[in-house]
Amino acid sequence: MGNCESSTHDKQIHPLKDEPVNLQNRGIPSSGDSLQSPPPHVFDSIKGGQAFSLEPASLTNPSETINTSDWSNVKDALNRNRQIEEQIMKDHRKLEKVIKLLLLGPAESGKSTILKQIKIIHLHGFSMADLAEKKPLIFRNIYESIIQLIKGAHSLGFELPANLQADIDTFCLFFNDYQFGDQMEFPKTMYPVVKRIWANERIKEVYVQRSDVYVMDCAKYFLENIDRICSESYIPITSDVLYSRQQTVGVSEIRYNYKDLEFRIFDVGGQKNQRRKWIHLFDNVTSIVSAFLF
Ligand SMILES: Nc1nc2c(ncn2[C@@H]2O[C@H](COP(=O)(O)OP(=O)(O)O)[C@@H](O)[C@H]2O)c(=O)[nH]1
Ligand SMILES: [Mg+2]
């Protein structure tokens, strides 16, 4: 292999032949012009025998000499290379401003609640439509709470007064037929039944002992607000939405900007069978926020 020199002078040594090459004679302007002799790293790459993607075919074939179109191809390739490098740098700078947070923790530890709170703080909260559409979910939370309290009383061996049994039977019959849908009114017949069941002290005791039996955290909040929730003009308020409990299926994401950073927060299903849906989110994650039950 012949001499290789990197220089901005007009005369260059052909990298593969030992003959000097006059770049100006080949229509290549000298330094200071926009079309300069090829930068040193072109020759370096040839010398090192690598990065041949930047070279015109003639450079790899010693029998051919360099012509203007070869250098023009080199220049094009270098331009493309520079553009790609600039784009990579831009993407990198952009990525540095993206903060990816993954919320992890057991079911009902508050992951989805954190997401709702972020929506309130950073994304203008809930619209009237958002609030109204939570009605069926809130009603379902109340029905499920009552069933859990009744089951809990049985599991804990609590004796319930005989006069409550009729209400319990009525409610269980109703719940057996109940199907979750877009129910926008709390059933009038169930309102006094639910009220009487929750008014019972033994039932309230089940809620206190919910570390031993499963009762949703939101039970007390909704049952204490039953009069407001069962009123005809009921529209959920923000705290109702915060307390509402819906099992997360799959992954939900919220994005917001704070200062010049873009936050992307991922809320995932806590159940084991949901985990394969979010395991890939660990790629490039900035932080993991763990939620715990206390
Ligand atoms: N005690 C209490 N419970 C809350 C509060 N906010 C939300 N919760 C309840 O905490 C539970 C958290 O559920 P969720 O956020 O869906 O948990 P995830 O499964 O980790 O997404 C729900 O039952 C909510 O009703 C609060 O301020 N106090
Ligand atoms: Mg959730």
From TrEMBL:
- Specify the taxonomic lineage: Eukaryota, Metazoa, Ecdysozoa, Nematoda, Chromadorea
Per UniProt, the ranges with Basic and acidic residues bias are 7-20
* Annotated stretches, region: Disordered: 1-42
Per UniProt, the keywords (alphabetical) are: GTP-binding, Lipoprotein, Magnesium, Metal-binding, Myristate, Nucleotide-binding, Palmitate, Transducer
Regions of biased composition (Polar residues) lie at 22-36
This protein is called: Uncharacterized protein
Outline the subunit composition. G proteins are composed of 3 units; alpha, beta and gamma. The alpha chain contains the guanine nucleotide binding site.
Provenance organism? Panagrolaimus superbus
* PROSITE patterns named among the record's database cross-references: G_ALPHA
Q: Which domain of life is it from?
A: Eukaryota
Q: Which GO terms describe its biological process?
A: adenylate cyclase-modulating G protein-coupled receptor signaling pathway
The family database entries (PANTHER family) matched by this protein are listed as: G PROTEIN ALPHA O SUBUNIT, GTP-BINDING PROTEIN ALPHA SUBUNIT
Binding annotation for Mg(2+): 112, 248
In this chain, GTP is annotated as bound at 108-113, 242-248, 267-271
Q: Which GO terms describe its molecular function?
A: G protein-coupled receptor binding; G-protein beta/gamma-subunit complex binding; GTP binding; GTPase activity; metal ion binding
CDD domains for the chain: G-alpha (cd00066)
One Pfam short name? G-alpha
Any GO CC annotation of this UniProt entry: cytoplasm
What InterPro entries does the record tag this protein with?
Gprotein_alpha_su, GproteinA_insert, P-loop_NTPase
